[in-house]
Amino acid sequence: MGKYTRQQWLTLIVFAIADFCSAVCVSLQAPFYPMMAESKGATPTQYGFVFGIFELTVFIVSPIYGNYLNRIGPKFMFNAGIFTTASTCIMFGFLDRINNTTAFIGLSFAIRIVEAMGNSGFLTASFSIIAKEFPDNVGATFASLETCFGLGMIVGPTLGGALFELGGYTLPFVTLGIMLLGAASLTYCILPSYSSEFKGDAPSEGNMLSLVKIPAIGLAAYAIIASSVSIGFLQATLEPHLRPLELSPFQMGLMFVLNGATYGLFAPLWGWLCDKCINPRIVVIFGAFVVTTSFILIGPAPFLPIPTTLPICIIALVLHGTGFGAELVATFTSAHRDAVANGFPDDIQTYGLVSGLWTSTFALGAFIGPSAAGALFDWIGFSWATVFVVALHLIVALSFGIHMCCTKKKVSSGLYTKIHESLAQNDPEKASLLGGKKNSIISITDSSYFSGVSDSSEEYYVY
To answer: Considering only CA atoms, which of 230, 215, 257, 232 is closest in space to residue 406?
Structure first.
């Protein structure tokens, strides 16, 4: 990082501010919106879909933005996305003036859809700008900004709950929306125009469908969906579940912090373990079992004869942050290696393709989570509804375990996958994945060489 130019440092700083403020605006309503919606006559099913529609929109529009990024221009898309997110955040703060249930829910849907379109454009453009500004440190820079986004997701519910307690429903949205508008102005002034630089980019040689057809990546996509389902599930139903404990809005906001704070604390550890010590699939399996345990406790599960208490809920949320962090970090770490090991070129296009898959599948799970949670909460109650998340993560652990057993003894196919001169030649982190020096032929006869992440054992020629 000491070698970063002034422009790189400025880009990193404004991205960090924008990521943090955007995450705060997206997450701040979780502690008090369900209560407000119910006061207007809405059911858990209805306001669960209000949370879920945001992620469904991201899932749909992200690939479209990616296709038209060169024409629109990354700087314009980035700034327009932040401005849209900030404006809709402020608009969301005036929904308490509407007393008609249908109008309240309808406008909630409309505003969240537009907010999601802005947030998706901002995220899509930011990754491309990162790839251009930090070609030798794409992974490290992406992880740093994800930390800022994670901090925003942590601060959002807490700050939102505190401002709601201080000044009512409108104050949190207006205050934080104005902060994000300030971040948008800052990025507009500091970021250079990248339009001419992106016009020369070659089209990707692969597509998302061919990526998902790789068994290891298909399983990783399912694990990401299951992880984000668990997050969305709690976002929509944790507040009504904890309501009998009679917590204040600020205290309720702190409960939403627990899993996010634990995720932020342990995410670097999971990344280091996946890079240096442990097969990422083992980390995914471990994370799946930890998430399963957390949902058995927080229900508590129907077969556990224990009451819902604050200490048990705190322990369960800490376990959840630990488990879903292990799943998310391990799947992101291994997916790019699996793509390269199965014939995709080790370049920015593949990195962007994998990142797009990760973003889309995460958004899909984050839509399914609150939507299913609201319906199940209405139908069978919170305790039985948690069994749905438990089943999803048991399938993750079982499928990854079977896949590891099936691929462990594969022998070399005798094929050569050419890895062209790319980021891997300049990035020590990626070069270590290829495991050799320039001008050498590496014969790999055991898939464990790639920390168990390759579906097929092949020979690789590194130029």
So the answer is: 215
